[in-house]
Amino acid sequence: MDGVELDVAVYTIIIDGFCKSGRLDEAWDMFHSLSLKGFDPDVKTYTAMIEGLCMESLVEEAKNLLHRGFLDDGTRIFKSRGRK
After folding, report:
1. pTM of the full structure
2. How confident is the model over 26-80, as pLDDT tens digits?
3. Where would I find the PPR repeats (predicted)?
4. pLDDT band of 24, cuts 50, 70, 90
5. How many independent structural domains does the chain possess?
């Protein structure tokens, strides 16, 4: 995409759009490819994906993804690349 700097925010908007239009497989693919592109999903990215799963009645998958965003002790691991 010429002229658009792709970052986590842009990918999150695309993921959210895929989810809202019922294209969950494409949202999943993009969500999982973020790390290959050098990005870490942030809170908004996880939220978009979790909401998309819930809209498709995939509650268990949404719960698993929610738990993946947190360490076992409840500490948040959502972060921007390079920040703690």
Report:
1. 0.79
2. 999 999 999 899 998 888 999 999 999 999 999 999 999 888 876 555 555 555 4
3. 7-41, 42-77
4. very high
5. 1
**Domain region containing 23:** 8-68
Q: Are 15 and 30 in contact (CB under 8 A)?
A: yes
Cβ atoms within 10 Å of 56's Cβ, excluding its own: 14
34: DSSP letter: T
Give the position of tokens 């947190």.
Answer: 70
Tell me whether residue 82 is in a domain.
no
Residue 45 to residues 3, 29, 55, 75, Cα–Cα distance (Å): 22, 13, 15, 18
Count Cβ atoms below 10 Å from residue 30 Cβ, excluding itself. Answer: 18
Residue 19 has φ and ψ, to the nearest 5°, of -60, -45
Radius of gyration of the chain (CA): 13
Angle (CA) 5 7 11, round 5° = 110
The answer to whether residue 81 sits within a structural domain is: no
